[in-house]
């Protein structure tokens, strides 16, 4: 008996530049990067130096605190550079692809492997980071057993790719194998969440041992955190694991072919893209071959991911580990004369203080301007409207800012991640960096509990 | 606008750290961001942001105040001319009132913004927009003849001790505008109560005709003089003596519509106040102990500052309850207490101001209990999970 949940609270940011359902082709970038910054809470320790030869599956760095968690090269070639930021923080390890070659991790039948053997294989092959956990929204701890596992089968973020279209163009058998592998991770439920508004059925819903539920409503109805909250909320001391849909395909491929090949179909989206389409690419690939020749002129912001939670990259930057989307929007570094006072027919807002709210179907071209200065919390009752969980967002934020550990715990910090607060950040009239506050809270909590 | 932009860019270095006028940096920034939305782009987190900001929100509230402000001008003139036995034209009354009201507005903004600018500079913050609304609210809840120095003193008191010592806009516990009024109410009651203060020129008492009392409906009710109470319609329209902006319920309702359509004001609080007032008014109607208790409950909505308080004061998000459930309780209690104070307390004819200030103090407590119930729910859930897990 599948559960169907319809969410009311939330908000869809109506952006221009939705990707047409056309797979424009396979992209083979020359450069790839694995970025430690994609994995919050990670302290990376390098395993390679520039000039080292690597194969697809060779570890580039590992987690200092949990050395068994390795982050591997997606392709075979040579380590080109290690880019560092402030305090020599490792930003990206860049690999030049030179040949088509894979480390053979061995084909195996999941039903013959023990749970430990499956985990071992995921760890060795570098696919483990695809599995994350609540609390803390970090790479899962392989030494504990989660009470349940979640895979979100749709993305409700602005301009997000259509997972049904992706599934249609991906090897579905790998998905079945991947889900079967995840099903071995827990004695509890393995949940696959599908889009209640689009039941065109490209994602298999008949996998043995997998519980299918349907969610619908405005963003963040596709966020895995929302699904977990409504189906199997994380209490203190409990852990839930989750993986992205496309990574489940990669997990399946690992067991079926014995190789690490994190192939993805990504959507190139945004108002500044001439022809928004889908492309097939390996995780970590340089986005330059995808965007070159297909973007408009101007001062642009390239984002790996969506406009709410994505990472800012340069036009020759790299696709993030967890991202299935590239968004290109205009930068907003201009002064606007009395911008706050204008009627605002062309200003897209969650509030009804702009006349644009008279046109509920129009799509908009949004830029990166903050539209105001940072202030103290003044308005109340706003965040709740875009936060479909039984959690008090404002009170939780204040507890984090005050570093009140007990209060954070009581108010449900174990259940949330940065992305769940992205819409709060978007609508915040006080322009508070809410996602950063949440991340700080999660890091603080994790440190406190370890 | 390029000319203006270039001019500002040229001046800017003088107002930054190390410049000639670095002490005025906050003031400069205040004006700059007032004229131009800053060119700052997102760095962390969400790449796109809603165009709404504090300035927009405050602007909406100011727009919502305009009907009450305009009517206040008209009524100030109207009451004055009535008191001297003249039947004025619409424009004549309006013009008279406008001229009388402007000094109050100028003093309120001048003193308040001056302190805000200084506080922002001392803290190294950007200037907060909160006072843009407070600065207009204060003149609207004053008697028209309040001496300007008293007004300045009240503004300084409320901004410094009511707001800045707590950390500025967003950190205050009490509604600053009401605090200014309460300050005067208790410090200079002679200028804030009685029948003479509500009509321009009546304090000096020259040329006042015999038939004009200047008493507000609340004072009439408190005196038990029900025969002289204006009709419901008259009080609804607002051609009665009272604080500048509070008399016209219909003008305030127009403002309420603006606040509700834009979502800037909380409908839960407004409805809560009305519900609380109605409940208490009805209860008094049932008890029927004295003539005031017999006043139909809905009269309370159009008398004194009830409507103004419900729409513009109780809904201040900073000092109100911050949880949605709490807002119902907070609003209801304000309505309830307002009517209790009005009817049962002979010392204060008006109860709305005190009811709101009292509930400002209790708002965090209401929120505490609302949040606590969420916490308990979460703990119970964890306990259930633990028990089923061990089975």
Verbal overview:
The complex is a heterodimer of chains A (450) and B (391). Chain A has helices spanning 115-125, 163-168, 172-183, 224-231, 245-257, 288-291, 393-401, 405-410, 422-427, 434-449; strands at 4-6, 23-26, 31-34, 44-46, 53-54, 59-63, 70-72, 76-84, 90-99, 131-134, 138-139, 148-152, 190-195, 210-216, 240-244, 263-269, 278-282, 300-304, 311-313, 325-330, 336-337. Chain A has 450 residues and is of the alpha/beta class. In chain A, the strands form four sheets. In chain A, strands 1-14-13-12-15-10-11 form a seven-stranded mixed sheet, with helices on both faces. A six-stranded mixed sheet of chain A has the order 2-17-16-20-18-19, with helices on one face. In chain A, a hairpin with a 6-residue loop joins strand 18 and strand 19 (311-313). Chain B has 16 helices and one strand. In chain B, helix 6 crosses helix 7 and helix 7 packs across helix 16. The longest helix of chain B has 39 residues, at 352-390. Chain B folds into two domains: 10-39, no CATH class; 59-373, Ammonium transporter fold (Orthogonal Bundle), CATH 1.10.3430. Chain B has 391 residues and is mostly helical. Classes of the chains: A alpha/beta (450), B mainly alpha (391). At the A-B interface, strand 21, helix 9 and helix 10 of A face strand 1, helix 3 and helix 16 of B.
């Amino acid at each position: 008996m599948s559960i169907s949940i319809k969410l009311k609270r939330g908000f869809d940011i109506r952006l221009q530049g939705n990707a047409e359902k056309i797979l424009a082709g396979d992209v083979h970038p020359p450069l790839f990067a694995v970025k430690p910054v994609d994995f919050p809470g990670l302290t990376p320790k390098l395993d390679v130096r520039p000039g080292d030869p690597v194969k697809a599956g060779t570890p580039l760095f590992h987690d200092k605190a949990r050395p068994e968690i390795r982050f591997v090269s997606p392709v075979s070639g040579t380590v080109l550079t290690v880019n560092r930021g402030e305090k020599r923080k490792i930003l990206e390890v860049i690999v030049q692809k030179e040949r088509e070659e894979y480390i053979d991790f061995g084909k195996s039948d999941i039903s013959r492997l023990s749970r430990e053997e499956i985990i071992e294989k995921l760890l060795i092959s570098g696919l483990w980071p695809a599995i994350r956990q609540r609390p803390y929204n970090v790479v899962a701890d392989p030494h504990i057993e989660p009470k349940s596992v979640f895979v979100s089968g749709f993305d409700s973020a602005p301009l997000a790719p259509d997972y049904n279209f992706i599934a249609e163009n991906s090897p579905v058998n790998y998905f079945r194998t991947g889900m079967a592998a995840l099903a071995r991770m827990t004695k509890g439920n393995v949940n696959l969440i599908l889009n209640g508004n689009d039941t065109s059925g490209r994602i298999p819903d008949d996998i043995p041992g997998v519980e299918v539920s349907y969610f619908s409503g405005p963003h963040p109805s596709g966020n895995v955190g929302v699904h977990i909250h409504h189906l199997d909320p994380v209490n203190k001391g409990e852990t839930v694991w989750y993986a992205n849909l496309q990574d489940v395909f990669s997990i399946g491929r690992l067991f079926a072919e014995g190789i690490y090949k994190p192939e993805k179909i990504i959507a190139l989206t945004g108002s500044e893209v001439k022809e928004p389409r889908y492309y097939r690419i390996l995780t970590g690939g340089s986005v330059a071959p995808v965007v070159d020749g297909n973007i408009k002129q101007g001062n642009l912001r390239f984002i790996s991911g969506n406009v709410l939670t994505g990472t800012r990259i340069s036009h020759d930057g790299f696709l993030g580990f967890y991202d299935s989307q590239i968004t290109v929007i205009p930068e907003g570094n201009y002064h606007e004369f009395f911008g706050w006072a204008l009627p605002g027919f062309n200003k897209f807002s969650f509030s009804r203080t702009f006349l644009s709210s008279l046109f509920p179907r129009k799509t908009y071209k949004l830029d990166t301007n903050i539209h105001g200065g940072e202030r103290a919390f003044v308005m109340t009752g706003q965040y709740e409207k875009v936060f479909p969980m039984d959690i008090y967002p404002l009170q939780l934020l204040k507890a984090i800012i005050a570093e009140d550990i007990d209060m954070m715990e009581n108010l449900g910090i174990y259940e949330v991640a940065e992305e769940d607060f992205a819409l709060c950040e978007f609508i915040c009239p006080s322009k508070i960096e809410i996602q950063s506050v949440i991340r700080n809270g999660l890091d603080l909590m994790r440190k406190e509990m370890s | 606008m390029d000319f203006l932009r270039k001019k500002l860019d040229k001046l800017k270095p003088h107002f930054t750290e190390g410049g000639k006028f670095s002490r005025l940096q906050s003031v400069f920034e205040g004006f700059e961001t007032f004229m131009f939305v800053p060119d700052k782009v997102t760095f962390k987190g969400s790449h796109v942001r809603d165009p709404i900001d504090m300035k927009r929100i405050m602007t909406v509230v100011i727009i919502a105040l305009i009907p009450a402000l305009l009517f206040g001008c008209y009524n100030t003139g109207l009451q004055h001319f009535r008191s001297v036995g003249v039947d004025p034209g619409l424009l004549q009354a309006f013009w008279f009132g406008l001229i009388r009201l402007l000094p109050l507005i100028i003093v309120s903004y001048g003193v308040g913004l001056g302190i805000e600018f200084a506080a922002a500079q001392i803290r190294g913050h950007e200037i907060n927009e909160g006072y843009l609304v407070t600065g207009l609210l204060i003149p609207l809840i004053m008697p028209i003849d309040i001496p300007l120095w008293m007004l300045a003193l009240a503004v300084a008191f409320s901004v410094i001790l009511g707001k800045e010592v707590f950390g500025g806009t967003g950190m205050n516990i009490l509604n600053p505008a009401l605090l200014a009024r309460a300050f005067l109410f208790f410090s200079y009651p002679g200028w804030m109560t009685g029948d003479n203060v509500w009509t321009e020129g009546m304090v000096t008492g020259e040329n006042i005709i015999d038939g004009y009392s200047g008493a507000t409906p609340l004072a009439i009710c408190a005196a038990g003089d029900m025969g002289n109470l204006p009709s419901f319609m008259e009080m609804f329209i607002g051609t009665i003596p009272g604080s500048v902006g509070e008399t016209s319920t219909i003008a305030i309702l127009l403002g309420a519509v603006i606040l509700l359509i834009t979502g800037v004001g909380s409908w839960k609080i407004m409805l809560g106040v009305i519900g609380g007032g109605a409940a208490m008014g009805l209860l008094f109607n049932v008890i029927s102990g004295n003539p005031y208790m017999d006043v139909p409950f809905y009269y309370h909505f159009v008398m004194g500052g009830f409507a103004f308080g419900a729409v513009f004061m109780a809904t201040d998000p900073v000092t109100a309850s911050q949880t949605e459930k709490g807002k119902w309780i907070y609003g209801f209690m304000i309505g309830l207490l307002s009517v209790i104070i009005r009817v049962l307390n002979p010392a204060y004819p008006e109860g709305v101001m005190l009811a709101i200030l009292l509930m400002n103090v209790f708002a965090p407590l209401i929120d505490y209990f609302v949040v606590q119930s969420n916490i308990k729910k979460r703990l119970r859930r964890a306990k259930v999970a633990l028990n089923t897990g061990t089975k």
